[in-house]
Amino acid sequence: MKLVVADSYEDMSRKAADLFAALLEEQPTCVLGLATGTTPIGLYDCLVDDCKRGALSFADAQTFNLDEYRGLAPDHPQSYHYFMRTHLFDRVDIDLSRTHVPDGANPDGQAACDAYERAIEQAGGIDLQLLGLGHNGHVGFNEPADSFPVCTHSVTLTQSTIDANSRLFDSADEVPREAYTMGIGTIMKARKIVLVASGQGKAQIVHDAFFGPVTPQVPASVLQLHRDVTVVVDREAGSLCA
Q1: What residue segments make up the domains of the chain, in order of their start?
Q2: Model-level pTM?
Q3: Which of 91, 97, 37 is nearest to 63 (CA)?
Q4: 10 Å Cβ neighbour count for 190?
Q5: Residues labelled catalytic
Q6: Span 2-188+203-231: which CATH code?
Q7: Closest Cα partner for 72 from 177, 170, 149?
Q8: CA dist., res. 147 & res. 38, Å (int)
Q9: Of 188, 210, 32, 64, nearest to 137 (Cα)?
Q10: Sign of torsion, CA 17 235 199 220?
C-alpha cells in the first residue's frame, strides 16, 4: 500500500486524477471502476479539465460504477446514474454505451447483481478502481459485517450510512434503505485501486482501515491485502497516520 498525504482537498484531487490520466494515456481502452459521493467530485473536475484541453480522452474507455440505490430510476436526481452524468459523463468524450451503473430500477435484486457481475467479467475486469471511504469503513455499500461479501449483491444500508447520505436528500426519510453494490471480492480483483478521503472527520477511519487489523468490521481494511493500492488523503484525513 502506498499512502499519499496531499496538502489540501484540491491537491488530493489532482494527485488522484493524475493516476487515472496516466492510465488513460497508456491504455486508452482501459476499464475504470468509478465511485460517487462528495469526495471524488474534485477528481472528476480535474479529469474534465484535462479532457477539455485535450490532455486525455475517454473515447475508448469503459467504466463500471461501484453501486446504485435500489429502487431509483436512472433519471432520478439522487441516483448514481444521474450523479455520474452530471459530474463526469456528460462533460467528457465518453461513449455512454460503455458506461455501466447497477440497475437500481430492477426489482429483482439477484438478477440485477448477477448481470452486473457478468458484465464486469466480460469486459475483462477492472484495471483501476476508484474508492471513497465511509465513516464506518465501508467501501461501495459494503457495510461492517461478519464476513467480506464476494460478489455484486444487494445490501441493507446501516443507519449511519443513511444519516451520512441524508444531506443529499430533502430528508433522511427519502434515502433508500437498500442498494446494489460490487462485493469486496469484485473490488479486490481490480488490478489497481485508488482510494481518496478528505477532512478531519475521516482521520480516525483512515488510521483504523490502513494501520489497524484486517477485519470485515472495517471493510476497507481488506485493501491492506491488495497488491497495488494507493491511498490519497488530504492533511486532515491523514493527520493520525504520521
Answers
A1: 2-188+203-231
A2: 0.94
A3: 97
A4: 24
A5: 67, 136, 138, 143
A6: 3.40.50.1360
A7: 177
A8: 27
A9: 210
A10: positive
